[in-house]
Write a structure and sequence with these properties.
- The protein has 13 helices and twelve strands.
- The chain is an alpha/beta fold.
- It has one domain: TIM Barrel, CATH 3.20.20.
- It has an eight-stranded parallel beta sheet. It has a two-stranded antiparallel sheet with strand order 4-5.
- Helix 4 packs across helix 12 and helix 5 packs parallel to helix 6.
């Protein structure tokens, strides 16, 4: 996603920063003064939203050899590493959290925890005008020393957090299945362009889409959200969404690895997938690989248990599953968990917080609404060595490189 920022986003960000005093329950601007104080302690990062921070010259040799690669953000590793070395442990821990946006005082909470990002839901749009949502976005990004990234699930069809509400000036987006059936990849590209325009207008950076899952059975949980085509056609769809999204400055997120298939909803139950590895390779992995080859910035891992790889942990918490993503599929971007507040994983974490296991498994970011317990648990784990310094630093460097690559700071 290396294109220039859209003029619309720049203009809105400048014009509407004056609107930050607007108060509404999704994000209070009360935290802006404390955030300003915190930001003033270090001038190496711009806190005015998108822009170019001042950075000292860097030396490639400073980056640990084991972190060096030719990944999609690699040209920004030096800057990211230099910035990461200025951060406190508390700031590093905050950066790996993609927290569910609180319904009140979100800017203040962002300033308190220094989160890497917020995930927005329908409640953050339903009762607010477009101007209020934009002001909310700016307030939250300005609340943190390192600007947050904001994400949303705007898949189309049954999952439309924004377009279902008429005040945003677009018709509710149809499901990818309907769009593809009526107009093929050309219509998918046009639909993705429209979604990207909407998200850019609202100062949102990351769409938690496309859905890469393979499903042709109407009884499957994921059926209504999947394209419903062959792995190869689904791969073409995924690559198209990634390309158009990221050409328009919206990060694409491939989900839900390793693929739901005919499994249950992990929001409420445990999905144990007993299919052989060969089936994953021959079917489920194909759309993910297509998205990776198209340059997708992010990949989201589900809570399904992939017994052929790891029968002990859900995929989101499995180091072996993450090795497949990195080593077999060659993904070098941001790996994030599905929501670690989901019931599906609680029986598999023992005495540990899910976020601790998730980071040790290889995730860069943890999506959760339970940050009041997960943040201190991760902080303690870093301080006592349960999570190594190398693990937290590498994740933070990759997150910062992603933000630099997308002009989020």
């Amino acid at each position: 996603m290396k294109g220039p920022l859209t003029n619309m986003k720049k203009i809105l960000s400048i014009t509407l920063i004056l609107a930050m005093a607007i108060s509404f329950c999704s994000c209070s601007n009360g935290g802006s003064s404390s955030a300003t104080d915190k930001n003033s302690t270090d001038s190496t990062v711009s806190t005015a939203g998108k822009g170019t921070p001042t950075q000292a010259p860097t030396d490639p040799s400073i980056i640990p050899v084991q972190w060096q690669d030719n990944g999609i953000f690699s040209e920004y590793y030096e800057k990211a590493y230099t910035l990461m070395k200025t951060m406190t442990t508390e700031e590093k821990v905050g950066q790996v959290f993609y927290a569910n946006c609180p319904t009140t005082d979100a800017a203040e909470i962002a300033a308190q925890y220094q989160f890497g990002g917020y995930v927005l839901f329908g409640r953050d749009f339903e009762n607010f005008s477009m101007d209020e949502v934009i002001a909310n976005s700016i307030a939250c990004k300005n609340a943190t020393r390192i600007p947050m990234t904001l994400s949303v699930d705007e898949e189309g069809g049954t999952v439309t957090r924004i377009s279902r509400y008429s005040q945003f000036g677009v018709d509710q987006f149809l499901s990818p299945r309907e769009i593809f059936a009526n107009g093929g990849l050309e219509s998918i590209a046009a639909d993705t362009q429209a979604k990207s325009n909407l998200l850019n207008t609202l100062n949102i950076d990351n769409n938690l889409a496309p859905v890469c899952d393979i499903s042709t059975d109407p009884n499957d949980f994921i059926y209504d959200r999947a394209l419903g085509e062959t792995p190869e056609k689904t791969g073409e769809f995924v690559a198209t969404v990634v390309r158009v999204s990221q050409e328009n400055n919206i990060a694409a997120t491939l989900k839900h690895f390793p693929g739901y298939g005919n499994n249950v909803d992990t929001h409420t139950g445990v999905a144990v997938d007993n299919r052989p590895y060969s089936q994953f390779e021959g079917e489920d992995f194909i759309p993910f690989k297509a998205g990776i080859d198209a340059g997708a910035d992010c990949l989201l891992v589900s809570h399904n248990i992939m017994t052929c790889v790891d029968g002990k942990y859900p995929a989101s918490l499995s180091a072996d599953v993450h090795k497949i993503i990195r080593d077999k599929l060659g993904f070098t971007g941001i790996i994030m968990t599905d929501d670690c507040s989901m019931e599906a994983i609680l029986d598999y974490v023992g005495d540990y917080d899910p976020a601790v296991i998730a980071l040790n498994a290889g995730n860069d970011m943890v999506i959760t609404g339970e940050y009041t317990t997960s943040y201190p648990a991760v902080l303690k784990a870093v301080n006592d060595g349960t999570i190594s310094q190398d693990t937290i630093d590498h994740a933070v460097m990759r997150i910062l490189a992603w933000k630099y690559a997308n002009a989020l700071m």
